[in-house]
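anyone seen this seq b4? input:
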Amino acid sequence: ARNGYLLNYACNIYYGINIVGPSNAEPLPQPPCPAMYQLDIVLKKGKNLAIRDRTGTSDPYVKFKIAGKEVFRSKTIHKNLNPVWDERVSLLVETLREPLYVKVFDYDFGLQDDFMGSAYLYLESLETLDVTLDLKDPQYPDNNLGTLELAVTLTPKEGDVRDAVRNLFKLF
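predicted toks r here
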């Protein structure tokens, strides 16, 4: 019973729920307390990407960021506006509040790479999806910069009581 109490306490802290004292109210159903989520992504391909080179093509690659931290960079596909990457990545994500920020760049040897567009993938309602992201430039939101196709799976990773208690003690 004590382990269950500690797990609920750790989950409440994890979810930002503060319990001040005993209550006569019906206990609320507890959400599962995943220690993390596994986010599996297949970066399939791009379509009609923006031209950034004088030759009328681009050398695109893709970066994924979560909470401002780069978590993935694809290989560069040279001279192609409809690249096929078919690259897979598995990420451990602590919270669903931070979206996956996807940015596409044109690789330029020896120079600063050119921005080709970006999009956000919001994780809160995600399970298994084939996703098409419309790439935009925040400075020119009406410009069509092409699309990216992804396959995305989000799976909760249930932590055990020891993980929850260990994370709880890290807070103090």
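The chain has two domains: 2-34+159-170, 35-158. Residues 13 and 21 are 14 Å apart (CA to CA). kinda curious what u guys think
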